[in-house]
Write a structure and sequence with these properties.
- By secondary structure, the protein is an alpha/beta fold.
- It has 14 helices and twelve strands.
- The chain has helices at residues 17-26, 38-45, 56-65, 98-107, 127-138, 160-166, 176-187, 199-230, 234-241, 264-269, 277-308, 332-342, 367-373, 384-387; strands at residues 8-11, 31-34, 69-72, 80-83, 116-119, 147-150, 169-173, 194-198, 314-317, 349-352, 376-379, 396-399.
- It has an eight-stranded mixed β-sheet with strand order 3-2-1-4-5-6-7-8, sandwiched between helices.
- Helix 1 crosses helix 3.
- The protein is elongated.
- The structure holds ligand SAJ.
- Ligand SAJ binds next to helix 8.
- The site of ligand SAJ has 18 residues, from helix 8.
């Protein structure tokens, strides 16, 4: 494996790192990808991918075949180092930057004058400065001779390749030269706007984007609770309110999931608890919505039992964290299904997820079969398949995500 002529080292070959590596390679830039998972390395070096993302596999295959992309557990020397590892949070919702720190420690011995070090991972404010201090503590001779920047991504799973190339990006250097150097780098593969700021603002910008969406969804979810009590159709209400030229209310659902919007607001609220009242409340409302949905299904079940004298069959429609994907991370639908199953152990729950063939915990049922068999249908995710079903008056339909908008 050639190790001395790489331009870019990417630390982390996941949902963002691998597409970024493939895109760099497509632009003729020699990339070396590093991951801690040997299976991931093997898969990529065979020209394949370990998760589904449109167009990605073809790009990785070509990049590996031409030698533009290579992957291994270890680093090689390069002139640009990009960190794209996950930032999980602890049980008490504090961000855990240990993966960023570990990746940085691996990079430190390879750094030389003029190199560019970039963090893309979602990070609490001040992380880039912390990593700068860590680097210079270990390599004092390089002080002020490196370029260091924070450059968050903002792509949507399922459309990653297009959005990596076409979304505007925020570039926050620890000084002006670092920002300029990072802008030059992104210019090689991003065709849209690159906006210069400092690292702290760039870090906060990423957190604020996802918190803003969380707050807006919380508003829609709060309306759904109010409308349920007031006997008003929330879907109709929102559609009508949105006829106002300056109102744009989002859609209520069974809660907020995924690895970004349900997580990033905690990076603000854990550090600024007094100031972030609205952000914290939005998280609470969106979490509460999932609990409320599970309670609604359980009450419908009890009511059915009282009225009919036997236990109903319940279909939980959807497990993914949002429509038309197979990703269950932080999924409210999964949480709700598990909660409903906890109170029912004898097989009266049918679990449906049309985007998965099988699941290690849940026995999956075909969506049409479940719809036919069940007495209570709980729509948890607005998958396209469900939109093809016809509304049936003889069933109890609990529409939490606007499939029939009833
Ligand atoms: N949701 C609703 N109602 C809505 C819209 C969404 O309940 O009206 C729910 C979804 O069902 C899902 C959750 O919110 O459970 C999040 O879904 P999403 O499509 O809004 O976002 P993600 O998590 O797939 O991607 C987000 C995006 N951020 C924003 O839209 C501000 C994406 O641009 C980011 O790159 C990504 O987070 C990330 O990596 O940070």
């Amino acid at each position: 494996m050639s190790s001395n002529n790489r331009k870019v080292v990417l630390m982390g070959l996941g949902y963002i790192g691998l597409p970024t590596a493939a895109l760099l390679a497509k632009n003729g830039i020699k990339v070396h990808g590093v991951d801690v998972n040997p299976k991931v390395i093997d898969t990529i070096n065979k020209g394949s991918v370990h998760f589904i993302e449109p167009d990605l596999e073809v790009m990785v295959k070509e990049a590996v075949e031409t030698g533009t992309l290579q992957a291994s557990l270890d680093l090689v020397s390069a002139s640009v180092y990009v960190i794209v590892v996950p930032t999980p949070f602890t049980k008490n919702h504090k961000p855990d930057i240990s993966y960023i720190e570990a990746a940085t420690k691996k990079i430190i011995p390879f750094l030389k004058e003029g190199d560019l070090y970039i963090i893309e991972s979602t990070s609490p404010v001040g992380t880039t400065e912390k990593m700068r201090d860590l680097i210079y503590k270990n390599r004092p001779e390089l002080e002020e001779k490196l370029f260091i920047a924070y450059c968050p991504e903002r792509v949507l799973p399922g459309n990653v390749i297009y959005e990596l190339e076409n979304n505007d990006r925020i570039i926050g250097g620890i000084d002006d030269n670092s920002s300029e150097k990072a802008i030059d780098f992104y210019r090689t593969f991003v065709s849209s706007g690159l906006y210069k700021t400092n690292s702290r603002t760039a870090e906060m910008c990423k957190l604020v984007e996802n918190s803003s969406r969380d707050v807006q969804i919380a508003f829609a979810n709060e309306l759904s609770l109010i409308c349920d009590k007031a006997d008003i159709n929330v879907w109709e209400l929102i559609e009508l309110a949105n006829k106002h030229p300056r109102v744009n209310i989002l859609q209520p659902g069974s809660g907020v999931g995924g690895h970004c919007i349900a997580v990033d607001p905690y990076f603000i609220s854990s550090e600024f608890p007094l100031e972030s009242q609205l952000i914290s409340k939005a998280r609470e409302i969106n979490n509460y919505k999932s609990f409320w949905v599970a309670e609604k299904i359980n009450s419908a079940k009890l009511e059915f039992q009282v009225n009919h004298g036997y236990k109903p069959i319940i279909a939980c429609m959807g497990l993914a964290f949002k429509p038309n994907i197979d990703d269950l991370r932080e999924s409210p639908a999964k949480y709700i299904t598990q909660k409903v199953m906890q109170s029912e152990s004898n097989g009266t729950i049918l679990v449906v997820e049309p985007n998965l063939k099988e699941h290690s915990i849940f026995k999956l049922t075909d969506y049409q079969e479940a719809y036919r068999k069940a007495d209570i249908i709980a729509f948890l995710v607005k998958h396209n398949e469900f939109l093809k079903l016809n509304y049936q008056d003889d069933k109890i339909i609990l529409d939490f995500c606007g499939v029939f908008k009833k």
